[in-house]
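Recap slide: DUF2470 domain-containing protein, sequence and predicted structure.
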Amino acid sequence: MADPVAAKSGFLCMYMSNHPDTLVSYVTYFGKVQGHVTTAKMESIDTKGMTLSYQTKAGPSSKKTVVVSFDPPLLGYEEVKPRLLAMKADADEQLGTVKAPQITSFRLPTAVLQTLIPFGFFIYTMISPEDDPSPVWTLGRFLRSAVGGDKTMYGICAFIGITHSLEALYGAYLSRKHRMPFSVTVAYLSAILMVGFPVTLDLRRRIQQARIDSIMKGQ
């Protein structure tokens, strides 16, 4: 099957020639080229990556090429623009040419509902008393016995606590990097400690979209 991105490589290379600073950022950050890159050009692109030529301060004789791979590979032509924008945002931020976008509000993703339901069952199972014959706790006692008893339940608790704590530390890093107000920081850290991954993933998506929006405004 023909590569859908390679089929439009010529057009994409011509289009990217209007964004030389972006290509320089790709070469410097993703190509891991040392020294001052003065110019860069996209020679070809396909679903697996792009080949870029570049020159440094040494002059025309310094012209070289570097291959920047896409991780993961592109699934189709429609993914080219968002991937290149995301890569430019990452490169510029890491190289210090732009500030990290500020996050000024808290958002609780709807995906937390998918986590809260099983978490609620876990809490119910954890607190189900062994010596209470009430049918309210029958399912809880059965579930606790099915997973291996109290020892397993405590192990699960410890795993959740450690995982969410590590995610909260990462959230604190993102909070500082993206200059969140104190109230927003508290809200995110509290949500991450309680819910974990869905909140962290949504925050990362918000940050990435803010980076892309910043680039689009600058174009």
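The CA atoms of residues 172 and 196 lie 13 Å apart.
Residues 6-95 form a domain with the Split barrel-like fold (CATH 3.20.180.10).
(End of recap.)
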